[in-house]
Design goal:
Elements (H helix, E strand, L loop, with lengths): L8 E3 L13 H13 L7 E4 L3 H17 L4 E4 L2 H10 L12 E6 L3 E2 L5 E2 L6 H8 L2 E9 L13 E5 L4 H10 L3 E4 L17 E6 L6 H9 L4 E4 L1 E2 L5 E6 L2 E4 L1
Parallel strand pairs: 2-3, 2-4, 4-7, 7-13
Antiparallel strand pairs: 1-14, 5-6, 6-12, 8-10, 8-11, 9-10, 13-14
Helix pairs in contact: 1-2, 2-3
Bound molecules: ribulose-5-phosphate.
C-alpha cells in the first residue's frame, strides 16, 4: 500500500464536516486528523497514535466505522488511545501479537523538511516507534506550528529510561552535549512521569540538532535508554493543517 506518498503536493483543505472556519488550533488538528482517517480503507490494519491530533483522527475513524461500515483492526500506542478506542468501538489487537500494519497515523512535536520528527511530548514515543516500525505507510498529522527548519528548535528530545539506568543514561546523554531533565508532574500526578511501560521519561535539550541521524545512532548505543523521540526517515507523508488549508509533503 506504499503508493504515491513520496511526492510533494499542496492541497486546499476539503473541510468536509468541520466547516470553513479553520481559525483555532483544534480545528487545524481536526482537519489533519480527518484527512488521515479518510485514507484508511476497508479491511486495513491500522496503528493509532497518541496525542490531541491523533484523538481527532481516532474519532473520525470511529465515525466511518459507524456510518460507512468499514472494517478495520487497530493497534493502539498508549493507554489513553486504548481507552478512546474502547469507548468509540474501534476493535483493537494486542500490540505484542502484531508485526505488520497497513497504515499508521500519529502526531508529532517537530517536523523538519525531510519528515524527520521529534515525538514524545505525550511520553508515548517508545510504543509509537514500535508501532510506526510495523507500517507499510506511516502518516504524520499536525498543525503547522509543528513545522521547523531544524529539529531542536522548540522541543527537547524525549527519552524513555529504565529506572535503574537513570544515572548512567543521564551522564551519557550529557556527555553528548545535552542538558537532561527528568520529566515531573504530569497534570493530576505528583512525582516523575512514568511511561505506559513503567519507565522514566526525561527530556534531553541539545539545542538545534545538526545531524539528527547521528544523534539517534549515538543515543541507541546507551544501555538502559530504551527509547528516544527522534524518528529519522520513518514518516512517508506529513499532513500539516494551517489556516490556508492542508499541505502534504
Ligand atoms: C506523544 C506524541 C504526540 O504524537 C505528540 O506529542 C503530538 O501531540 P499533539 O497532537 O497533542 O500535539 O508524540 O508521545
Amino acid at each position: 500500500m506504499k503508493t504515491v506518498l513520496k511526492k510533494t503536493l499542496t492541497i486546499r483543505a476539503d473541510l468536509g464536516d468541520i466547516g470553513a472556519n479553520m481559525n483555532t488550533m483544534n480545528e487545524l488538528k481536526q482537519a489533519a486528523g480527518i484527512r488521515a482517517a479518510n485514507m484508511i480503507q476497508d479491511g486495513m490494519t491500522v496503528g493509532l497514535g497518541t496525542g490531541s491530533t491523533a484523538t481527532y483522527m481516532v474519532d473520525h475513524l470511529a465515525k466511518r466505522i459507524r456510518e460507512e461500515g468499514i472494517k478495520v483492526k487497530a493497534v493502539s500506542t498508549s493507554w489513553s488511545t486504548t481507552l478512546q478506542c474502547r469507548k468509540c468501538g474501534i476493535p483493537l489487537m494486542e500490540m505484542g501479537e502484531v508485526s505488520h500494519l497497513d497504515i499508521v497515523i500519529d502526531g508529532a512535536d517537530e517536523i523538519d523538511p525531510s519528515r524527520n520528527l521529534i515525538k514524545g511530548r505525550g511520553a508515548a514515543h517508545l510504543l509509537e516507534k514500535i508501532v510506526a516500525s510495523m507500517a507499510d505507510t506511516y502518516i504524520i498529522i499536525a498543525d503547522s506550528s509543528k513545522k521547523v527548519n531544524q529539529l531542536g528548535e522548540k522541543f527537547a528530545v524525549p527519552l524513555e529510561i529504565l529506572p535503574n539506568a537513570i544515572a548512567l543514561v543521564s551522564a551519557r546523554v550529557k556527555a553528548l552535549g545535552a542538558t537532561v531533565t527528568v520529566r515531573m508532574g504530569a497534570p493530576g500526578k505528583d512525582g516523575p512521569v512514568i511511561s505506559d511501560s513503567g519507565n522514566l521519561i526525561a527530556d534531553a535539550n541539545f539545542g538545534l540538532i545538526k545531524d539528527p541521524a547521528k544523534l539517534a545512532r549515538d543515543l541507541e548505543h546507551i544501555p538502559g535508554l530504551v527509547g528516544h523521540g527522534l524518528f529519522i526517515g520513518m514518516a512517508d507523508k506529513v499532513i500539516l493543517a494551517s489556516e490556508n488549508g492542508l499541505e502534504e509533503f
